[in-house]
Amino acid sequence: MPTERFTYSFRTENVGGEIKYFAIFTDGDGNPQETEIPREVYMALEDCRRHEQRQARSDMRHIEQSLLSDEQLIERAEKPPAPMDEAISLSLDLRAALPLLTEIQRRRFLLHHEHSLSFEQIAQAENRSKSTIAESITTATEKLNIFFSSYPNERGP
Fold it and tell me: I want to staple 21 with a disulfide (CB 3.0 to 4.6 A). Which of 17, 31, 42, 118 is the partner?
């Protein structure tokens, strides 16, 4: 899981209609300190923090790919591929239904069903609880079931 790399935080204060920016940090003796900083410094530090967070999320996405267990890898290798027509049809059907999901639901649903990640693996990668992930994927599945129950299916029974 990503750890906080910054040893400082920020706060803003509205003083007489003017916004003042403050950096809060711990000095070498372990005492909390606060100092007013210019807006430009605040914005630069905030950009740096956001960049670090994006990098940490990117790192987690790469790590989650390596979290697959041997069992999941074997299952993927042993799973016979679907006939091409069926695979294309399923892909098109799913593509039509995915916009019904929120971005978070869509990502979690695909990680679980397409990439065979467990709820726990997704929870670790997103720094969320397993129950939150399970609820999100269950909701997504229910939305898709409703969509497919009314969706014209030309593949037959």
Answer: 42
